[in-house]
C-alpha cells in the first residue's frame, strides 16, 4: 500500500515537473528503454543521427551507476556512492527524459507504456 502510494506520488511529481499530464502520449523517432550505461550511450548516438528532439530515454531512476567501478567497491578501494551520479547529469542534452518505468512495449502499435500512465509512440521500434 505504502509502496503503491510512493509510486503514485513519484508519478505525479515527475509529470508535474515536466508539465505533462497523466495518460498523455508523445511521439519520438527513437525511444530507448533504460538509461544505464548502454541506454545513455545509445541515446547520445541516436541524438547525433536524428536530432535530440526526436529521441526519448525511459528511465525511472534519479541515480545512474557506473557498474564497472563496483569491482573496486567489492575490493574496498571505492565507495558505492562514488560510482553514482545523478541521471540528469548523464542524460544527453535536449533528449527527452521520460522519468518512469516501462511496463509494456506494444510493437504492433509502436508504443511504450509507462508506469506513470504515459504512452510513448515510436516511429520505428
Ligand atoms: C561488477 C561489474 C563490473 C563490470 N565491469 C565491466 C568492465 O570492466 N567492462 C565492461 O565493459 N563492462 C563491465 N560491466 C558491465 C557493464 O557495467 C554493463 O554491461 C553495463 O552497465 C550495461 O549497461 P546497460 O545500460 O545495458 O544496463 P544497466 O547499466 O544495468 O542499466 C539498466 C537501466 O535500465 C533501467 N531500467 C530497469 N528496468 C526498467 C524499466 N522497466 N523501464 C525503464 N528503465 C528500466 C535501470 O534503472 C537502469 O538504469 C561490469 C558490470 C558489473 C556489475
Automatic annotation (TrEMBL):
GO terms for molecular function: FAD binding; sulfide:quinone oxidoreductase activity. It holds the Pfam family Pyr_redox_2. Residues 28-118 form the FAD/NAD(P)-binding domain. This is Sulfide:quinone oxidoreductase, mitochondrial isoform X2. One of its GO terms (biological process) is sulfide oxidation, using sulfide:quinone oxidoreductase. One of its GO terms (cellular component) is mitochondrion. The lineage of its organism: Eukaryota, Metazoa, Chordata, Craniata, Vertebrata. It comes from the Eukaryota.
